[in-house]
Q: What sequence folds into this?
């Protein structure tokens, strides 16, 4: 079984958490930044990891 960690992805524009992703323990060492559609901004924005 792989150990996965729930990670919150926060919109860089409105600072709201719009996505949750599962990261493996190995991937958790790196900060992730994804361009995703924010339902609050109604556009694609960079999403950053939030603790
Ligand atoms: Zn947003």
A:
């Amino acid at each position: 079984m792989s150990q996965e960690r729930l990670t919150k992805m926060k919109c860089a524009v409105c600072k709201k958490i719009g996505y949750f992703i599962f990261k493996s323990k190995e991937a958790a060492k790196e900060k992730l930044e994804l361009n995703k559609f924010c339902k609050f901004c109604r556009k694609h924005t960079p999403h950053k990891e939030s603790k």
